[in-house]
Inverse folding.
């Protein structure tokens, strides 16, 4: 209990961290033209009258006279120019805004996609950097740009919105102000040219700005704002312990498949999670009964990353029975609700392969089960496959043929001595081996070939495929069915063995890393252990950046295999160090980089930065691979921080000990030395006098006195180690 942290100190720390981050206000609307930018500028002018330092970072007036008039008297930050394909594109200048460091900045169009070559892909990431720098931000956003309602917008309007903002970022807003306008008034503004001009206005009126669309978008905006206000109310009540407003421990699990419609299931789950204020987890079950293509794997990885961006936890389970794995995970993690998509199989498919919905309904017990229908994706973007599709192997087919031939060669000399049914077992043994070694497709071919050879060589009439005995029909059918079943079961066992081997490999490498980290006590040794295990597992070049004596981020360990780090790569590492976030290739921040950069974040500070450089395809687009690398980095960061803390503690203790010994010696000598030294000095001075030196009696007395005092000093120096030893038992 003595080590329990002080709640008041924790509260002060949390309040201090909150105070350092800027405040975000979003002017939220159903569609363009409702007056979001106008309302934002009016609010900014009021803040300026209050004495607040306000600047305009980026405003898109769309040549609306009343909006441009509100810019008068406000400081406008010059835009930077980004050159892309010989075209100069004006963009918001984040660096200039950070250098200017105002109290409040206005940044219009939060969902905007920055020009290629910018530091961030999206403008909301620029805004987040401003907030982290302690600058308050006013911005604007339409409801169709919210990620969780993207599929609903496409269903209602028929338009797939590509520019979206993650709901996790929107939920960080300190205030969302709804700017609402009735549909009739909005259409009137459109006709008057106050929303768009010329042909653009006519095109909008004929497409997006249909009365039905506007009503639906307005309803979505109202509901989204109401949900945000409700979340703020729950947060306020929870902070002040007014009352409980939801069931404690409410949590739900969403099961997804490889189907593209699972993306809509994830969005629906996000909306449910936001409405009930519950944590949620996306689960995918790798079943040994199904064979994934590389496209399926890529799609699942993309959906898992998408779910993480929406704020979900993700987990990949593995097992023969998907329903059993889901129920087991739900019970072990106190899941109260299970959500699955509506099955699209026919009754025949469910009869042959089973239905996970029915299985879950029978096994879920006290866990609530929800079945949600998913609309078909209007035009799913094809995912880039992480590997080519596995083609048929003629080499494996030839080897399987060789095994069947070998079984036949064994059966020929045994056929006079064994009944035909016993010869079947030899073929089945070969089929089992082929299925385990080469998979289901090759084993099916081997099964069919075994049946034909058995009929041709070992049943009457011999050397003919004619079936003379009706009982042989049953034998052949049973042999074929048993062969196919054995092939399926053996292939399933093979898949489980492969999955188990992969899990064991990951657990082994983590265990070995932990063991090596525990054996090493120096930061450099810990980094070397990390490099050794990371390179052994991922087989990729890497570099570790830490602060040098001049407090500049520099390469500490170089395993780049000839890769040269240009200034841009070092700038990415510096950004990761300062912001404590991952960046680099195939991420949302600085994606044009060569490498993927992750910070070594300890409890108190950032230890350094890892830069790892994929050679061809980036393996860290797979959430499992990325999570494993993050575990490597996190364990190493904590170990290095602990080692540095131990070294600093030892150094401090050594300095304290040196200071104590210094004081001990000083006090000892200052007390013991002055008397003898003074008497020796006085006696020596007397000896220089001729009358004393010529007097033998006085001279001998002084010499004896000097000798006695010198012996005292000699005795004191001999006892000094004993004094130090007694002070350091």
């Amino acid at each position: 209990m003595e080590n329990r942290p002080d709640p008041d100190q924790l509260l002060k720390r949390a309040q201090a961290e909150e105070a350092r981050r800027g405040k975000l206000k979003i002017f939220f609307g159903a569609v363009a033209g409702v007056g979001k930018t106008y309302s934002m500028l009016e609010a900014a002018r009021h803040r300026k009258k209050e004495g607040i330092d306000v600047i305009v970072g980026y405003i898109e007036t769309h040549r609306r006279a009343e909006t441009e008039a509100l810019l008068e008297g406000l400081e406008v930050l010059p835009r930077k120019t980004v050159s892309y394909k010989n075209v100069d594109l004006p963009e918001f200048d984040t660096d200039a805004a950070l250098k200017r460091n105002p109290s409040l900045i206005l940044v219009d169009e939060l969902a905007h996609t920055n020009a290629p070559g910018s530091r961030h892909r999206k403008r909301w990431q620029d805004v987040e950097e401003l907030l982290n720098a302690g600058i308050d931000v006013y911005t604007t956003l339409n409801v169709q740009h919210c990620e969780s309602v993207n599929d609903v917008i496409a269903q209602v309007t028929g338009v797939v919105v590509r520019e979206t903002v993650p709901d996790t970022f929107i939920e960080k807003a300190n205030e969302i102000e709804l700017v609402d306008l009735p549909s009739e008034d909005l259409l009137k503004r459109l006709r008057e040219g106050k929303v768009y001009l010329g042909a653009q206005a006519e095109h909008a009126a004929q497409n997006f700005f249909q009365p039905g669309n506007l009503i639906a978008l307005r309803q979505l905006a109202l509901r989204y704002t109401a949900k945000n206000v409700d979340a703020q109310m729950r947060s306020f009540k929870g902070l002040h312990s007014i009352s409980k407003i939801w069931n404690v421990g409410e949590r739900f699990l969403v099961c997804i498949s490889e189907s593209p419609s699972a993306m809509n299931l994830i969005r629906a789950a996000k909306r449910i999670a936001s409405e009930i204020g519950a944590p949620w987890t996306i689960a995918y079950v790798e079943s040994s009964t199904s064979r994934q293509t590389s496209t399926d794997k890529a799609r699942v990885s993309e959906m898992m990353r998408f779910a993480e961006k929406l704020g979900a936890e993700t987990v990949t389970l593995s097992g023969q029975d998907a329903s059993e794995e889901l129920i087991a995970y739900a019970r072990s993690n106190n899941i109260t609700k299970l959500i699955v998509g509506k099955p699209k199989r026919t009754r025949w498919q469910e009869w042959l392969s089973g239905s996970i919905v029915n299985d879950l309904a029978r096994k879920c017990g006290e866990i609530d089960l929800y079945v949600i229908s998913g609309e078909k994706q209007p035009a799913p973007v094809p995912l880039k496959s992480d590997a080519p599709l596995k083609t048929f192997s003629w080499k494996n087919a030839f080897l399987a043929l060789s095994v069947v031939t070998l079984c036949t060669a064994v059966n020929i000399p045994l056929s006079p001595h064994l009944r035909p049914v016993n010869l079947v077992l030899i073929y089945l043994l070969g089929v089992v081996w082929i299925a385990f070694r080469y998979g289901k497709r090759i084993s099916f071919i081997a099964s069919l070939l075994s049946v034909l050879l058995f009929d041709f060589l070992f049943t009457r009439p011999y050397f003919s495929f004619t079936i003379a005995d009706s009982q042989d029909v049953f034998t052949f059918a049973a042999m074929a069915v048993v062969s196919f079943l054995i092939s399926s079961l053996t292939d399933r066992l093979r898949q489980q063995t492969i999955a188990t081997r992969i899990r064991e490999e990951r657990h082994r490498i983590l265990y070995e890393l932990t063991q090596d980290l525990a054996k090493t006590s120096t930061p450099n040794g810990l980094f070397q252990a990390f490099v050794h295990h990371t390179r052994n597992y991922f087989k990729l070049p890497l570099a570790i950046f830490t602060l040098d004596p001049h407090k500049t981020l520099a390469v500490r360990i170089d395993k780049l295999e000839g890769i040269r780090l240009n200034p841009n790569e070092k700038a990415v590492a510096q950004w990761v160090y300062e912001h404590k976030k991952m960046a680099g290739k195939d991420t949302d921040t600085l994606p044009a980089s060569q490498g993927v950069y992750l910070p070594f974040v300890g409890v108190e500070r950032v230890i350094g930065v890892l830069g790892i450089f994929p050679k061809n395809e980036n393996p860290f687009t797979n959430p499992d691979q990325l999570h494993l690398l993050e575990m490597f980095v996190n364990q190493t960061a904590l170990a290095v921080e602990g080692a540095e803390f131990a070294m600093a503690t030892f150094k401090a203790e050594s300095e304290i000990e040196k200071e104590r010994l210094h004081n001990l010696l000083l006090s000892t000598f200052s007390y013991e030395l002055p008397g003898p030294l003074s008497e020796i000095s006085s006696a020596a001075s007397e000896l220089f006098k001729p009358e004393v030196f010529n007097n033998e009696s006085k001279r001998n007395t002084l010499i004896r006195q000097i000798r006695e005092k010198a012996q005292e000093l000699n005795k004191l120096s001999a006892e000094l180690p004993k004094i130090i030893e007694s002070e350091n038992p």
About this structure: The chain is about 55% helix and 15% strand. The first helix runs from residue 7 to 20. Confidence is low (pLDDT under 50) at residues 1-5, 242-248, 375-390.
